[in-house]
Design goal:
Layout lengths: L4 E4 L5 H12 L3 E6 L4 H13 L5 E4 L5 H14 L5 E4 L14 H29 L2 E6 L2 H5 L5 H21 L4 E8 L5 H4 L3 H10 L8 H12 L10 E4 L8
Parallel strand pairs: 1-2, 1-4, 2-3, 4-5, 5-6, 6-7
Helix pairs in contact: 1-9, 3-4, 4-6
């Protein structure tokens, strides 16, 4: 297997951690992006990864800033080499019904979840084009496919990510680059585990498989999309949601 440089934004989150582990298992040189004010917790996370046997680099980056993404990608290039595999995984929620949603909550989610895909990808795609090889994987959500009450901002951002995927896939397909979306359903992470038991149970009851997904199940899908063997799947939106939402 060819060793590649993989950059995972939001890499120290629940799903991001699983993706970092899996890509490292595949033999890649993995760098996890984290929000700069969270340096202390990111370094503790890196130590935990090291203790588990994974040597994962760290990159402080505000993905909502075009300029900061340019800086971070340049620094990754200097230390690890140019990015071959990009996983846009950073994201936040600021839930609330539209009639009560402050403009700040709309802008925060759009900038962190959608603008970030442009901000980071813009700075890695030229290197991929020059090499004639690249894998770009955007982590969206089932709620970008079906909508969700109280998540106009989040659903719009995640739906927009796949529009971005499809356009960039067409632009780069002839150059050995694949661009795909993964849309997770409800995944068991520290964030969801903190929910009240009755809320968790109602979520599980809504899923045909009657369980939450595992972060590793998202990571396995990402690893397949990032592989050398997967050279002909591009512009796709891969659902990993236990049957919660199906489409033709």
């Amino acid at each position: 297997m060819t060793k590649r440089v993989a950059f995972v934004t939001g890499g120290n989150g629940g799903i991001g951690s699983a993706i970092c582990r899996e890509l490292a298992k595949q033999g890649h040189s993995v760098v996890a992006g984290y929000f700069p004010p969270e340096k202390e917790s990111a370094e503790a996370w890196q130590k935990q990864m090291h203790d588990e046997g994974f040597a994962i680099g760290l990159a402080a980056v505000d993905v909502s800033s075009f300029e900061d993404c340019e800086r971070a990608v340049a620094e990754i290039g200097d230390e690890f080499g140019s990015v071959d595999i990009l996983v846009n995984c950073a994201g936040i929620t600021r839930d609330g019904t539209l009639k009560k949603m402050p403009e700040a909550n709309w802008k925060a989610v759009i900038s962190t979840n959608l603008d970030s895909a442009f901000n980071v990808t813009r700075h890695v795609v030229n290197g991929m084009l020059d090499k004639g090889w690249g894998r770009i994987i955007n982590i969206a959500s089932v709620n970008g496919q079906r909508g969700q009450f109280g998540q106009a901002n989040y659903s719009a951002a995640k739906a927009g990510m796949h529009g971005f995927t499809m356009a960039v896939a067409l632009e780069t397909a002839a150059k050995g680059i694949t661009v795909n979306t993964v849309s997770p359903g409800y995944i068991a992470t520290a964030m969801t585990e903190a929910m009240p038991e009755e809320v968790l149970q109602s979520i599980v009851n809504s899923v045909p498989m009657r369980r939450m997904g595992k972060p590793e199940e998202i990571a396995n899908t990402v690893a397949w999309l990032a592989s050398e063997e997967n050279a002909y799947t591009t512009g796709a939106n891969i659902p990993v949601n236990g049957g919660l939402f199906t489409s033709h």
